[in-house]
Amino acid sequence: MNSLGRIFKITTFGESHGEAIGVVIDGCPAGLKISPEEIQTELDKRRGGQSAMTTARKEKDQVEILSGIFEGRTLGTPIALIIKNQNTRSRDYESIKNLYRPGHADYVYDAKYGHRDWRGGGRASARETAARVAAGAVAKKLLLSAGVEIIGNVVQVGNEKGGQLNEKMKEIIARAKAEGDSVGGVVEVVATGVPVGWGEPVFGKLSSDLARALVSIPAVKGFEIGDGFECATKLGSENNDALVNQGGQIKTASNHAGGIVGGISNGENIVLRVALKPASSISKEQTTVDRDGQEQNISVQGRHDPCVCLRAVPVAEAMTALVLADHYLLSKISKI
Amino acid sequence: MNSLGRIFKITTFGESHGEAIGVVIDGCPAGLKISPEEIQTELDKRRGGQSAMTTARKEKDQVEILSGIFEGRTLGTPIALIIKNQNTRSRDYESIKNLYRPGHADYVYDAKYGHRDWRGGGRASARETAARVAAGAVAKKLLLSAGVEIIGNVVQVGNEKGGQLNEKMKEIIARAKAEGDSVGGVVEVVATGVPVGWGEPVFGKLSSDLARALVSIPAVKGFEIGDGFECATKLGSENNDALVNQGGQIKTASNHAGGIVGGISNGENIVLRVALKPASSISKEQTTVDRDGQEQNISVQGRHDPCVCLRAVPVAEAMTALVLADHYLLSKISKI
Amino acid sequence: MNSLGRIFKITTFGESHGEAIGVVIDGCPAGLKISPEEIQTELDKRRGGQSAMTTARKEKDQVEILSGIFEGRTLGTPIALIIKNQNTRSRDYESIKNLYRPGHADYVYDAKYGHRDWRGGGRASARETAARVAAGAVAKKLLLSAGVEIIGNVVQVGNEKGGQLNEKMKEIIARAKAEGDSVGGVVEVVATGVPVGWGEPVFGKLSSDLARALVSIPAVKGFEIGDGFECATKLGSENNDALVNQGGQIKTASNHAGGIVGGISNGENIVLRVALKPASSISKEQTTVDRDGQEQNISVQGRHDPCVCLRAVPVAEAMTALVLADHYLLSKISKI
Amino acid sequence: MNSLGRIFKITTFGESHGEAIGVVIDGCPAGLKISPEEIQTELDKRRGGQSAMTTARKEKDQVEILSGIFEGRTLGTPIALIIKNQNTRSRDYESIKNLYRPGHADYVYDAKYGHRDWRGGGRASARETAARVAAGAVAKKLLLSAGVEIIGNVVQVGNEKGGQLNEKMKEIIARAKAEGDSVGGVVEVVATGVPVGWGEPVFGKLSSDLARALVSIPAVKGFEIGDGFECATKLGSENNDALVNQGGQIKTASNHAGGIVGGISNGENIVLRVALKPASSISKEQTTVDRDGQEQNISVQGRHDPCVCLRAVPVAEAMTALVLADHYLLSKISKI
Questions:
Q1: Is the pTM here over 0.90, yes or no?
Q2: Domain with C258 in it: what CATH number?
Q3: Which segments cross the bilayer (chains A, B, C, D) (predicted)?
Q4: Domain of B124?
């Protein structure tokens, strides 16, 4: 279940402290110009160690292209991208290899599989998202050829909301960090240039596929499109977006719907938000159990993000791009 | 894109005013006892015409089993269920067949397909959800054999919140109806008895599959699991669920996570909520355009729900059941 | 596992003596003109009771369109087609409900599922192929819009080979019938008009998808494309098809490859053949066992085909059409 | 379309002269013991340069495990395996980069994608099969835990048939090689120990999935199960396998069916054969066209196999193993 997409399809692999993580993109059309640098640029946005507000784990996250691109253009064959794991300090984890960290997948993986890579969270590590970002770079390039751009922003940290990361939000993060704690937030993604008609009825709705893709990001606990939960409080007469004729084009007077109606894009900006819980790894002492069920205290050491929202921005953009790329291709064959 | 699920897989079909709607369930194990009455009971919960608060369209929604069940038990072959469309008043729609109803999929379907069944919303009608409920009845029965139960409730209407539908909520709905308007709300679904270990890493997370399934319900604009958007405002030390040993079993002291960690069930109750927008069909006059792009006023007549939340409850339960049934089967083959 | 196809995708359902059999086609583009008569015409080709050489079970096999077609054109939504089972004589099977018919799936279904519809073979009955033919009719219509036609023929019965069914073949069938026996044969399908470039590398090869689809037909035990098994005896210099320039078009001087190279169509006729075993249902006495493992003699009564090849022709055409329709759509998005 | 399987699912990638080829296995259960040596052993069987009868391209085909295996056992997460391309002599191909080799995919890839990696056949090279063999090694190990073994053999070269590769066959190959030519043949694969009940009705038949998988091997032009094309010449009374009671177990007295009835295994040996065309790369002069449509003579130099059957044996085994592993897992959830 490590695949996503119907036509533009990705399969990711890799454990946090294994040899490498990576992704295979199957279904990207031939002839798309893409350079290693374009992929690297996206990866660099996700990388830690860039400010006081992100983890100190400094990895180059150097992408290697193993296949699918020849003379600077895609071949129509699978594009395999890998990122070697280099700055892995497995020792950080050895002391807690038999302790289940609260909020982490340690316990559920052990229960499910009976065998677990305890080094750095293994497959459940957010490091896995680098592979998504690499694939997302290709999806973004494909979308760009269709005039679509995707921009993400942190729009809430703790109780502080705003159009993008501001000083107050930074303070909240700094305070959490100082206390060995972490804090949650909200990331918004806007896709511009999506024409009317992307998305498929019923179970392939654009909103539905976006929900799946975005909620699959580690720490995401909520998803909304357009006005989202705010809609619950509204009347139909307030919430419906009136259709208008703008210079010969059918548009909506407002965009409460976030660009998607009946699961299909309506030509307005696509606007979605995801709520991220505070990072589970905190150095503050917590109660937990070990593999034998003995209750223990735990303080998660290591290099962790006090607010995962910051690094989640390129990941949320990537997931949005992957879904849109898939629907872009599907939209080409919806009518005869 | 009218299919959902990997092993327990459904494909729905049907337009609102066509011959019939229906569903094919492929992948239900053989030997499950299920009667037509058990399916009908679920369908009856979804049916309109039952109170002043739902649409007056009174359909029997009589399910017919075409295949897959023999001598009261499933055969392991596809289960085809159909519901004939009977009480269809296509005339209600003829006057607006060239008008795009705001908030509805009329315009995007026309743009996408170039050819549209305008009678009652066609495929985009919420009537399509009856097929989901029928399939969900089979999923619920399968889950029951594994000790899992699923209960949904309306927990918010407009700004009024509560454990379930209360008098204040009913008043808000009645007021909207009286004004030819509609109102939004929130539905919560709780699944009890799910053991630890259901869900698959990365793109097959239980949370992620639930998000996709629930957001595919018409009018849903938001989804959250556990504390959802509330998590954004919390510190890690507040939000992490401490692991404890309860009589030899590993449990959590709280359930902020809503029963899912790292995409995998942890043995606690699974708790999710969806936000539904106010129904788009309102008799209040709105501005819109017709197929030629001419601006027009529209008042949507016909028999509509002033608050879709009420009838969304069995649908949300069904979608939850369908996802859980799929993961129940998958969980059986996760280790050697 | 009752689905086939990636974009043009079908899901069939139904037991031989249940309420109905049917198919849901998901992914057919909107706007395709198709009438009930066009589907019925294909079904009529498959029907029994038409000559001394096929089963006497005379069913109208009347198709009903439940969804997906409006005003004579496809909507882009799922097309559900059902055929009610009418002329079912379940009594014919009651005497052998505990006997496993040699060559039939009775025993393996019982072992696999523990619960079996013994009436007329249930899901394993060749009656299931009517649903494929109905779906194939839509695929054929879609292909016709792309200039592709598909023609099947019986080219071998017993040891008698020929371009199509001839008198000697008919004699062989008549003799088998007279002796309460059955005889095998070979069906060939030719698709004309397929342009260069359909088919996907590695696991989506046109040849590979055709093999899967054709071998899924009941009684098929062999599949070949182009010269097939004959290739095994050839030298490369004999078997390679030289590329030539025919009036500005690249063509091949011969067609040993059967129109597919590296899994992708090369613009020549696609030629495939399937070998069908003699029908398993024969009135001649055979040895078998019952559900308790007791050895018994069995003479399969009822209305059976002495040579299934004849009725397999439209089925083989349908399966070929379904695969080609899927690849036709996929081919539209292979390059940017 | 570079994926195969439903539960035990592989995705391969890589061009012949690119950085690497590889495979991601998704869905292998956790806890399976597997060592790098076990995978390498299978790869070594496929490698060229081992006798006068195979290509002189001597590659180590050294497998690297990037993920999914920890402390010698599978984690239940994706297993990524790569093989770097080392002994690539792209110069061999430069002279023919604008020439379409007869029998090869050069022309169809160019037509389909508009952009092609001409070095060594790119993605269409049989080198891609090394990734299948690596994945097949894991599948074989999983099957072994269920008591299933898979053995392949060359049973025909040119017109010479036999139980396995014999002196006469070697002579035929040597003669073809001496003449700058190639020769076709047949490979047989037998799977022992498969219990009754693997395979799924209609489109997931074991026979049908095997056909798809085996025909996807480069050069395969025919597939048969059990008596295959021979069945076409038989009467039902000759071809049906009588069911018998062997010491309390239901078995068949003969195995014309090749271990599969109605698409489901019946507990007998599974026996299949594939026909391979003579290798397309021959040094004998042939007629062809170049990218501009100009007719040219071509003599394909480089290091090629005079008979691909020899190296196809481990590939055919691998493909059989991959399909069986998938159905082994599926069979565990067929009844309640």
A1: yes
A2: 3.60.150.10
A3: none
A4: 3-334
